[in-house]
Specification:
Helices cover 8% and strands 26% of the residues. By secondary structure, the protein is mainly β. It has a domain of 47 residues. The chain has a two-stranded antiparallel sheet.
Length: 77
């Protein structure tokens, strides 16, 4: 059984938007929207991996000091 509900479309700047009713709320901060024929399909985006996030960062342009090998001392935890 498919749950459906009529919703209103509105403008947000130059974009068309739809307010998602609470019972259809998606988890997270992002979603995937695609068109299948005349239908729009909106689904939760999969969680982003740390490696994918790190790949979007710009490289640092700083000079780092050189490290010398210093024997590790005893560490008490």
């Amino acid at each position: 059984m498919t749950t459906e509900r009529y919703v209103r479309l509105f403008r947000n700047g130059r974009n068309q938007a739809v307010r998602i009713p609470r019972e259809f709320e998606l988890p997270g901060e992002e979603a995937i929207l695609r068109k299948e024929g005349a239908r729009l399909v909106l689904e939760p985006a999969p969680p982003s991996s740390l490696l994918k996030r790190l790949a979007t960062l710009e490289p640092l342009e700083e000079e780092w000091p050189e490290f010398t090998d210093v024997p590790a001392g005893d560490v008490e935890l």
